[in-house]
From TrEMBL:
One of its GO terms (molecular function) is ATP binding. Keywords: ATP-binding, Cell cycle, Cell division, Nucleotide-binding. It comes from Vibrio maritimus. Pfam families: AAA (PF00004). The keyword Transmembrane does not apply. Belongs to the AAA ATPase family. GO terms for biological process: cell division. InterPro entries: 26S_Proteasome_ATPase (IPR050221), AAA+_ATPase (IPR003593), ATPase_AAA_core (IPR003959), P-loop_NTPase (IPR027417). Signal peptide: none annotated. Residues 251-383 form the AAA+ ATPase domain. This is Cell division protein FtsH.
Length: 460
């Protein structure tokens, strides 16, 4: 058994070593490029050669995670150079030591190299200016490649692979440190995939569910509208491109889910992603609004940019908090809020993917907002028949029901939403396990329903 474990560990380490070797080769290529760019720029011996003459490492037979990523994204030589520069301080810091050379005319470092110094780190930290120097020092017209790579819309930035840190106030935009995201570095080495993290600058998190499509219990009419949305997710690209629908309508699909809490809005969004093999990202509205005007737009733009590359479904929960009826602009805060709403409406309308906005009350939504959506889905409270199905699915494979339990009567007598049924299930399971058994009795269920009703100041 010990030999088998040792063999498994060796296999993993071999793959990691292969991944590391690929990164080292890429940074070694970067080092040659840096040397040649500086040589050409300073008109030293060998300046006639161009850095593009230095072939980057072959990746077709590499087998590393890094190679697979570069090939899948079809990165060009400028993009590979940027990626290598961003990872260099973490992979091989000495590869950037060429930039420590002094300008003999003024006896100080070359300003155009774009150095950034950080206390406690003695290597050279590249900036956006460093990347621009490598790309355009000898071909000024190539600055457009730098601008494209450092823009928020570029795949490397949108996927949060690379990041250009904010420049100090009053400094040029390219003067911020240009770095590789630590999570992506870990992925390139270990092969462990990651998802973008929920942060103030990326106010969204992955939405998933262990349930399956068959677990969804909705009114027949509601299910019909959801199937329409599912059909769009499955066939929208064919309609837009092959059927030329894209010449007549804007790309993307926008839907509003409205109805009481617990009626399945969030679950439906998660399941739509699951059955169509898409990731669903829930935008955290509590992190969206920034007191700094302009920061909110920037943070949301990162989410939209990433989603457009990944073909995510964006899910805005409690949408009336952000997309509700706009107020009269009686103060600067009101004007900023209205400005933000207008910005979001435009981003959603221009987004080429799928956006779902959930709200408890449709009446709170601005009419100008709802007109821009293709589908308005009313998640109603389940009827007695649907409630019975919810009760049956909830207790299945979790608890054993005593002979006195009459789920049909419970479903008929107590109007509960699906989310409330799950709350009752949880409470009943806790009650049963405290008795050191799995059996749930009628009184357990009624007592738990009573607790649910009390939350809304209702009595049985």
């Amino acid at each position: 058994m010990a030999v088998l474990d040792w063999t498994t560990d060796l296999t993993v380490n071999d793959q990691q070593q292969q991944n590391l070797s690929a990164l080292y080769r890429e940074v070694d290529w970067l080092t040659e490029v840096i040397s040649q760019v500086i040589c050409s720029y300073l008109k030293q011996e060998g300046h006639e050669k161009h850095w593009l003459d230095i072939e980057p490492p072959e990746l077709d037979q590499d087998g590393s995670v890094y190679a697979d990523t570069v090939l899948h994204w079809q990165l060009n030589v400028f993009e590979r150079l940027a990626l290598a520069l961003a990872m260099a301080p973490s992979v091989r810091p000495d590869s950037l030591d060429f930039f420590f050379g002094l300008n003999g005319m003024i006896d100080r470092p070359f300003t155009e190299f774009g150095a950034s110094s950080e206390r406690g780190f003695y290597g050279f930290l590249p900036t956006g200016q460093t990347l621009n120097f490598l790309i355009s020092a000898n071909n000024p017209e190539w600055r457009i490649h730098t601008s494209a790579i450092l823009s928020a819309q570029h795949k490397l930035m949108a996927e949060q692979v690379t990041e250009l840190l904010p420049a100090d106030q009053g400094h040029p935009g390219f003067s911020g440190v240009f770095k590789l995201n630590d999570q992506w570095l870990n992925y390139f080495i270990s092969g462990e995939q990651h998802r973008p993290e929920l942060t103030a600058s990326f106010p969204a998190h992955h939405l998933d569910t262990p349930l399956e499509w068959d677990d969804l219990v909705l009114d027949h009419n509601v299910m019909g509208q959801i199937e329409e949305l599912r059909a769009w997710l499955a066939h929208g690209r064919i309609l837009m491109e092959e059927w030329a629908l894209g010449k007549k309508v804007k790309p993307g699909y926008r839907a509003v889910f409205f109805g009481p809490p617990g009626t399945g809005k969030t679950l439906t969004a998660a399941l739509l992603g699951k059955v169509t093999d898409r990731e669903v990202y829930r935008v955290d509205l509590s992190m969206v609004v920034s007191k700094y005007i302009g920061e909110t737009e920037k943070n949301l733009s990162r989410v939209f940019d990433a989603a457009s590359y990944k073909d995510w479904i964006l899910f805005f929960d409690e949408g009336d908090a952000l997309f509700g009826k706009r107020t009269e602009a009686s103060s600067s805060n009101d004007r900023h809020a209205n400005q933000l709403t207008g910005y979001l409406l435009q981003k959603i309308e221009d987004f080429p993917g799928t956006v779902i906005v959930a709200t408890n009350l449709k009446t709170n939504m601005d009419a100008a907002f709802t007109r821009r959506f293709q589908n308005m889905v009313n998640f109603t409270m389940p009827n007695a028949e649907q409630r019975l199905l919810l009760w049956q699915k909830a207790f299945n494979s979790v608890c054993e029901l005593a002979d006195d339990v009459d789920l049909a009567k419970i479903a008929n007598d107590y109007p509960l939403a699906g989310g409330q049924v799950i709350n009752v299930l949880r409470q009943c399971a806790l009650t049963a396990i405290r008795r050191n058994e799995r059996t749930v009795y009628q009184t357990d269920i009624i007592d738990s329903i009573r607790r649910e009703f009390k939350k809304d100041n209702k009595l049985i």
